[in-house]
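To assess whether the prediction recovers the assembly geometry, we first specified each molecular entity separately, as shown.
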Amino acid sequence: MRASTKFRWAAGFLLVLHVVVIFAGFIAPYDYQSQDRLHPFAPPARVHLVDCSGKLHLHPFVYGLKDSGQGFGSYAADCSQVLPLRFFVRGDEYSLLGIFHSTLHLFGVDAPAQVKVLGSDGFGRDQFSRLLYGGQVSLFAGLLAALLALSGALLVGAISGLYGGVTDDALMRLAEVAVAVPSFYLLLAVRSLLPLRTGPVVAFLLVVCIIGFLSWARPARLVRGVVLSGRERNFVLAARGFGASRSYLLRRHLMPMTFPVLITQMVVLVPQFILAEVLLSFLGLGISEPFPSWGNMLAYAQQYHILVSYGWMLAPGLMLLPVILAYHVLADALQEKLQLTA
Amino acid sequence: MRLLALILLGAAWAQSGTQPDFLLSAAAPGNMGGKLVVSIRSEPRTFNPVTAVDQVSVGIISRTMADLIHINRGSQKTEPALARSWTASKDGTVFTVKLRRGLKFSDGAPFDADDVVFSFKVYLDEKVHSPHRDLLMIGNKPIRVEKLDKFTVRFIFPSSYAPLERLFDTLPMLPRHLLENDYRDGKIADAWGLNTPPDKIAGLGPFRVKEFVPGQRVVLEKNPYYWKADSKGQKLPYLDGITFLIVPNQDAQVVRFEAGDTQIISGLSGDNFAALEPEQQTRHFKLYDAGPGLEYNFLMFNLNDDTGKYPEVARRQKWFRDVRFRQAVSAAIDRTAIVRLVYHGRATPLATHVSPGNKLWFNHAIPAPVHSPDKAKQLLKAAAFSWNSKGALMDSSGEPVEFTILVSSSNQQRMQMATLILEDLKQIGITAHVVSMEGRAAVDRVLNSHEYDSVIMGLASGDVDPTPDNNVWMSNGQTHLWHLGEKTPATPWEAELDRLLEKQLITLSYAERKELYDRFQQIEAEQLPMIYLATPSVLVGAQENLGNFQPAVIEQYTLWNAEELFWHTPGKH
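The predicted structure of the complete assembly is given in tokenized form:
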């Protein structure tokens, strides 16, 4: 595949995914926190066209669940309960971007029955709905935190590399301190300074800021290295000789040199940050129950009994794979493009 | 020279002449030989019974040590151990113990009354800081220990003391010949660390330390001088040794057990129990549900009165202090859902902190808690709460009722309870928020800063007897969690609880004590200083050809009778 095609695929996929999670309220059939206590760990619903007696239906449908009598969390399809899939149904209220309020959902079945296309968790909450809502947190937190960390890195690294001398020393010692700070205790301290309850938006921004703040230092050193070596390149020296100002050098020559490094860093950091959010919620700083994020959904799925019996709980992990892959492809393609233009 | 040899010979003769005073085990006789491997979740911190507090160290040390009088984990009653018999004076203040004769420590040195006196001297010494000291102080006065003759010891209690002989359980008798020098030098707290050569450590338990490999395992071997025998006259223990493998997390422990690397697993969660259940036949192990244990999980509101620093908390406390509010929250909670979804059915809903697993003290007259949002609403209405048009609960000044529930994020089960309670409270119009926090940070808020609205926690009683839990229930107790540091009881019912506890402590008849404690539980169930949720069942598993395996609901769930465990096919292990 040509680089540009790959780029288009990857960018398209990421774009669609981000749009889908933004519209989670509409696409998800249920609220992320509505519990169905009679159906913990319900398996993913199968969509049928042919019913138990072999009759063909034109309208796709799912079966209701009944207890299979084999103990906790085991179900069998209830052939007497045919639930036709309906589109544009009314259900739980949600808000889009905090502005529009609606009860219209893309699909669903007649209440009180529920359709769980990715099964349910231990509280009977719809895994598909949670996956979409969780994506809102994870995808954007990862992306924003990475952008934040890398802007910091670029700023500090570029100044440090360009000016050298005392400035360089001071900034790099600062970066070393930032790397060496025992983040665990720092996070505990941050938590104790905050009020007991942090709303979901505050929690989200907090996650972005904390992760961004804790991880600017390493990429900053990389950027500094690139700028430092770039400063001595012949064409840069030539530009300087012609009287180019520092800011011109930085803009025109040095910053573009750092882009490949930054983009590679970005691709590495985004998935890392999606998972870092788990650690934060463990320390009481992230997104906590009942709000979902891919990180805390995966942390929940780590339990042995879930791993052996309820494979669908790993859906957020499976979602991470194409996301990470797409970011990598994107980075490769971008790098190629930049090299071509350079 | 010849004379000396004769004397030595004579001594040896005399020694073998006095048959050691064996205790006859009531368990079914088994086969000698074989080894047992079990997992522990961390390295022990010490082999020193004087200072050990963490569960892992205590678990290992208990296998190498013995007490005077022991609580049988099966019957929950006391039975003779190193003490052969005992008598108590009528008022329960003087307690005379006759020791078994001819017993030896695991290094072969003889055991007598001097070791007992020495042990108590060490435990009671303030400078040693032994965790056992608190239990030996009755009304702030220490018990006195006197040697009457080589095999008789007298204990004098400062006042009559109801639990009496239960006091001696898991109080290890120390070898004076090995520890006296350390004690005299003030170094006994540092003695018997993990680096001590095993031959310098000795006790009266069925096993002795053989090897410790840091980060990997602790190996115990059979104590050849142990003082129990079975009905066939075989000397216990049956097993040649026990190996404790260090396997840090429970899921990994489950995998090791499943693979047969370890032969006993304890502390299984309901879900892991369910996951292992279908494999019992093919993998030749058996899982046991020993019934409700002594751990109680609860939701507790902050009733401390030093919360002025946190106006948010202080403002909400006027709701929490109203007993009708607490009762309403209790009625709104669906405990059967907790039992079903969190514990997969392997738990029991609680009305008080005393679990039905406590056979001797559970009050059967208290009805099981009923889930009734309607009753909750009635209670709230009676307490002048109301609902707005959206169904949100408002207090009498028109403020919406909203509070946070603190929970330790390392405990999956309590996290899940919080999620369920959140939804339950929504049904009666209360908006609650879960604040999950790293375990130590959460405990710090409860014990020290008092900055929390409510918290989900769990405690485990160490013994079935009410007394060891006094520090939680007495209003001036160190861990009187909902309201710490009360100088005088803050409420009339707390004063009444104090009175009942103090009275039962000096009442000697079980029937009278039970009556007092029944009343205690009744008040607890009405006033709900904690909203009791559920007590998980004790779930364990063992290879099916392990004989005499009898899981108990008191701590040391599985290895409490390690000396009686045996393999039906010893050659294979």
